[in-house]
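user: Kindly work through both lines:
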Amino acid sequence: MSNFKMYSIFSGNLRRIGWKLNEETQKGVLRAEFMNGQQYDYSPVTQEKYKEIFTLEGSRGKWFNEQIKSDIKIKYQKVEDEDLTP
């Protein structure tokens, strides 16, 4: 599931994020690239939830941990090397 348009964000632990709709499941997928270069896909994430990170005045890393990683309804999967977004 490549072809994410990734955007750089200012965060201590996140480098870039992107979002797209998975055509098969009809659920939104947020792709996060961490400072170590590893990428993970988180789903389901609405486009509205994804856009919140760009309007924050506080810590984007804290928002990501509280709103995405801590949400038990959102599952994650490491992106394999052949699917990494350049």
The chain has a mean pLDDT of 91. Helices lie at 47-52, 60-69. The beta strands are 7-8, 14-22, 27-34, 39-43, 75-78.
